[in-house]
């Protein structure tokens, strides 16, 4: 079986690095035009219908509304499982919320699927919104 030149794990790490340094253009450039972001999967205040953010414009709007306003976002990946064109990362995301007084920590499984062109076709985050731990910094 031939291996992909760029793996889903490579794309996941690039995605996480771009978020960490607030590189909007770099993050958006990782996605295929028809990609979908589900973060979290299912209905949430970020996606009331629970259908995900599909396509470049919707993914950019998700970035602007959910990622950009935060002071910082870091990823602590405990385990990573690369299978074919997908990777599942297990760990936590630590987000310093706007204003810097509170941190939100979510534990979950974060999956990334690559397409044949070496772009992200899907980013799906499995975490429970109601179980996010929000504490004062």
Kindly list the characteristics that best describe this protein.
137 residues, globular
Question: What is the fold's blueprint, element by element?
Answer:
Elements (H helix, E strand, L loop, with lengths): L7 H13 L3 H6 L1 E8 L14 E2 L1 H12 L4 E12 L2 E11 L5 E13 L5 E7 L6 E4 L1
Parallel strand pairs: 1-6
Antiparallel strand pairs: 1-2, 3-4, 4-5, 5-6, 5-7
Please give a quick description of this structure.
With 137 residues, the protein is α+β, with helices and mostly antiparallel strands. The protein contains three helices and seven strands; from the N terminus they run ααββαβββββ.
Descriptive report:
The chain has helices at residues 8-20, 24-29, 56-67, and strands at residues 31-38, 53-54, 72-83, 86-96, 102-114, 120-126, 133-136. The protein contains three helices and seven strands. Strand 5 (102-114) and strand 6 form a beta hairpin. It has a single domain (8-136), classed as Nuclear Transport Factor 2, Chain: A, CATH 3.10.450. The mean pLDDT is 96. Strands 1, 2, 3, 4, 5, 6 and 7 form a seven-stranded mixed beta sheet that branches. With 137 residues, it is of the alpha+beta class.
